[in-house]
Amino acid sequence: MITGLTWLLGCQLVGEVLVRLTDAPVPGPVVGMVVLFVVLQVRRAADDVPVVRVSDALLRHLQLLFVPAGAGVVGYLSVLREDALPVTVALVGSWVLGLAVVGWTVSLLGGRER
């Protein structure tokens, strides 16, 4: 378990360092996930590798990570109520944009298989 957590945190650290060195406009943990993905693809990791087991354990308890976000929403409910229109437009707009990008990507990748 400790080995898997070390891999996850190590990849996140590498991502943070890369972002700081390159001054990239991407969050460090996102770059760390890409680094972890590349490492797992190069090593052709099996399902019983420690990092996979730790990731599965964390995903089983993912709902606990949403508790602080929910508490933040409740704490700032008055601010959200005042700015309801811009927040709603931003949420719906980003959802539509994300849906369009996923649909475009699926159609692009699906076209390659035919």
UniProtKB/TrEMBL annotation:
What are the protein's UniProt keywords?
A: Cell membrane, Hydrolase, Membrane, Transmembrane, Transmembrane helix
What are the subcellular locations of this protein? Cell membrane
Q: How does it sit in the membrane?
A: Multi-pass membrane protein
**Pfam families, per this entry?**
LrgA (PF03788)
- Annotated signal sequence is none
Q: Which GO terms describe its molecular function?
A: hydrolase activity
Q: Does the keyword Transport apply?
A: no
Lineage, top-rank taxon, reads Bacteria
Cellular component terms, GO, for this chain's entry? plasma membrane
**Classification via PANTHER family:** HOLIN-LIKE PROTEIN CIDA (PTHR33931:SF2), HOLIN-LIKE PROTEIN CIDA-RELATED (PTHR33931)
Name of the protein described by the UniProt record: Putative effector of murein hydrolase LrgA, UPF0299 family
